[in-house]
Design goal:
The structure holds two protein chains of two kinds. By secondary structure, chain A is mainly alpha-helical. Helix content of chain A is 42%, strand content 2%. In chain A, strand 1 (195-196) and strand 2 (202-203) form a beta hairpin. The longest helix of chain B is centred in the middle third of the chain and has 34 residues, at 165-198. The chains are: A mainly alpha, B mainly alpha. Chains A and B meet through helix 1 and helix 9 of A and helix 7 of B.
Chain lengths: 230, 461
């Protein structure tokens, strides 16, 4: 009876057993890496905007307070986007002829809002409230990253649930004094830069400060599903 | 009485053989392999396959519509959120258990009568598990998110809820499917090699040759084959008990009256084997008739399977009895109401049909004449299949529709899509089975050959 298969089939079939394991393992790893990559999450990717607004210039170099534009951040779930009038409170006086600002002036003239591209957007099935975070000592930069260093705004976090849970499981590692919430240059306490709480106590490490503030602000580690998925 | 004709009406000693005398190693191989290789595609097969395939397409339509519209097309709602989908899941998964029992436990116990039925009983297991697996997935509403049930590293940092028996189900059923497929395939290898060697056309040689994985029948191969079979049998044995135990936890962990009972695991396992043997008979009797396999699947096989059915049926009957007894003995108002509602509530007709199908009618199996009548056994096996399906309906729907609060009492009625999905999986099962009997030796050539020598010895003595 003639051979059905060439004798190389032995080698190929043995290799295919090991190969299948490697290929499947590699595929799983690749999918996992893709899911975590900026290409998929848009983390650290700047967005095109109708006007190239620079947080670095306004919040950093000029030192304008976050709440000057994001007015409702302490009272509402939504931090708020400024109306064109807020821009024009300065830009009716300075850089009045800058070509870059023409869309702002046009918006003011025609009474049509600027349509910004949303950078940080949570899905609709997630309930998120800015006010409770800000009022419990979670600083803007904890989630929004080094905003005072962003010429064009990008998303500083993946917005994955793991990222939310990382803080909700251990809030003491991230909390800061309420007085520092809107400080875009805030650094966690260290020996060189101690942080002072409202009552004057000075802290040199985050663990001590965190556990003190968690108690002081009555911060709960809310992890129940319905905390965010209501 | 006996529709078999004259060839099986010999003396009782002949009827007790596992293989009719006169077979040699070569004729056994010829007989079984010819069904696949030389007999070709017959008209009867085409007809059966066509009907099954049409039902499979019904399943296709039902599932497509389900994916478009959601589970609202079924009759489920609060309070009966689990209805046909879970009834069918438990029914199908239970049916699979006979295959595992035959192939694993009976192998370890050296029960020779398993040899000619184990191959298609194992195939039945795999196809039944495939049908069963459909239902929890479809019932999820978003089947494409099924992987949420698996513990894998994910960017949500969430594990499945390990305290939920539904997650245990995922592990139990996927383990069961994996072990069953491996066991079946390992057992098939020598037979696939036989088909490879006997096949005349090139495509068949290549396909069977590929699947035979280079089997040459050397002593080393046989020794490894035996070891692998025993190891897999050892792995599969606990599954016979564990899988349906875990399935029963889906119910007994909950506090619903009619579910919250410690008797569930043993009585579910017994029920699974009961319905499984009924399904083996439902499949075996027409097959042996159509393919003239009466010499290989003898009266002794049918008789033994009927006895297993009778025994497991009695265990199930004991389970029903104890459920009823405990409801009154416990003094629990809710349990008492649950039993009274089963027997005299809105679904009472279903309960009494269930008692008739599962307990009353199968008692005729005490009679030797019935156990040795293929037609009679076929009818009883169908009755038990229906009975076991109704049992799950009673447990699931009748318990849910009258829970603690009268304000949430309601009725459940299946819609046409409920039926289409259920009948559709029967189509899936039969389609796979028709393909199996057409392309794979449905009786283990190797194991029946091992009987030839033994039969000769018995004849000689």
């Amino acid at each position: 009876m003639p051979q059905i298969f060439h004798h190389s089939t032995n080698f190929i079939s043995r290799m295919s057993i090991y190969g299948a394991v490697l290929i499947l393992g590699g595929l799983a790893l690749a999918l996992y890496e893709i899911a975590l990559s900026p290409w998929y999450t848009d983390q650290n990717v700047s967005r095109e905007q109708p006007v190239p607004f620079s947080h670095r210039h306004h919040a950093g170099e000029l030192g304008i307070d976050c709440r000057y534009c994001h007015t409702s951040v302490e009272k509402s779930s939504f931090a708020g986007l400024p109306p064109t009038q807020t821009c024009m409170s300065c830009h009716s006086q300075i850089w009045t002829n800058a070509g870059m600002l023409e869309p702002v002036r046009a918006s003011y003239r025609d009474d049509v809002s600027l349509s910004w591209t949303r950078v940080n957007a949570l899905p609709d099935f997630v309930y998120f409230d800015h006010s409770i975070h800000v009022n419990k000592g979670i600083g803007c930069t904890t989630c929004h990253g080094p905003i005072a260093d962003m010429p064009l705004t990008y998303r500083a976090a993946s917005l994955y649930m793991s990222w939310c849970l990382n803080c909700h499981r251990q809030p003491a590692e991230f909390v800061r004094p309420k007085s520092e919430v809107f400080n875009p240059y805030y650094q966690p306490p260290s020996h060189d830069h101690p942080v002072t709480a409202e009552d004057g106590t000075s802290f040199v490490d985050q663990a001590a400060l965190g556990s003190y503030l968690v108690k002081e602000y009555k911060i709960q580690s809310l992890q129940h599903c319905s905390t965010c998925h209501r | 009485m006996d529709p078999e004709g004259s060839q099986n009406t010999g003396d009782s000693q002949r009827q007790d053989l596992l293989l009719e005398p006169g077979y040699t190693l070569a004729t056994v191989t010829d007989k079984i392999s010819s069904i696949v290789l030389t007999r070709g595609t017959t008209k009867g097969w085409m007809l059966g396959f066509g009907v099954s395939f049409a039902l499979l397409m019904l399943f296709n339509a039902a599932v497509s519509y389900l994916l478009i519209r959601g589970v609202g097309i079924w009759g489920i709602n609060i309070p009966v959120g689990w209805a046909f989908a879970i009834v069918n899941f438990v029914w199908w998964i239970g049916i699979g258990h006979a295959g595992t029992l035959i192939s694993a436990i009976l192998l370890l116990l050296h029960q020779k009568w398993r040899t000619s039925i184990n191959r298609f009983a194992e195939a039945m297991t795999i196809f039944a598990v495939a049908c069963a697996g459909m239902f929890p997935l479809l019932h999820m509403g978003r089947p494409w998110l099924f992987y949420y049930l698996l513990p894998y590293p994910n960017p949500m940092w969430m594990w499945p809820q390990f305290r939920s028996p539904l997650v245990w189900d995922v592990f139990a059923v996927s383990t069961y499917a994996t072990v069953s497929v491996l066991f079946w395939f390992v057992g098939l290898i020598p037979d696939l090699a036989t088909l490879r060697d006997r096949a005349k056309n090139r495509a068949a040689q290549i396909i069977y040759g590929f699947l035979a994985m280079g089997w040459r029948g050397s002593a080393v191969h046989w020794s490894r084959y035996e070891t692998a079979s025993l190891l897999l049998a050892g792995l599969a044995t606990p599954l016979v008990v564990s899988v349906h135990t875990v399935v029963s936890f889906d119910f007994s962990i909950a506090i619903v009256p009619g579910w919250h009972s410690t008797i569930f695991p043993p009585y579910f396992v017994a029920g699974a084997i009961y319905s499984g043997f009924a399904m083996v008979l439902t499949l075996a009797i027409p097959i042996r008739k159509y393919y003239q396999l009466d010499d290989l699947i003898t009266m002794r096989h049918l008789d033994t399977m009927a006895k297993v059915m009778l025994a497991t049926g009695m265990i199930v009957a004991y389970g029903y009895m104890m459920e009823t007894f405990m409801a009154f003995y416990s003094g629990s108002t809710y349990d008492r109401f649950m039993i009274m509602n089963r027997m005299a509530g809105p679904y009472r007709v279903i309960y009494w049909i269930l008692i008739a199908c599962n307990i009353a009618i199968p008692q005729v199996l005490w009679l030797k004449n019935v156990r040795r009548s293929p037609l009679g056994l076929f009818i009883i096996s169908l009755v038990v299949n229906v009975g076991m399906w109704l049992e799950r309906f009673v447990i699931i729907v009748v318990s849910l529709h009258r829970e603690y609060l009268p304000s949430k009492w309601d009725m459940y009625y299946p819609t046409r899509w409920d039926w289409a999905t259920f009948v559709g999986t029967i189509g899936l099962f039969l389609t796979l089975f028709y393909l199996f009997i057409r392309f794979v030796p449905m009786i283990s050539i190797v194991e029946v050959r091992s009987l030839v020598h033994e039969t000769e010895k018995e004849q000689g003595s």
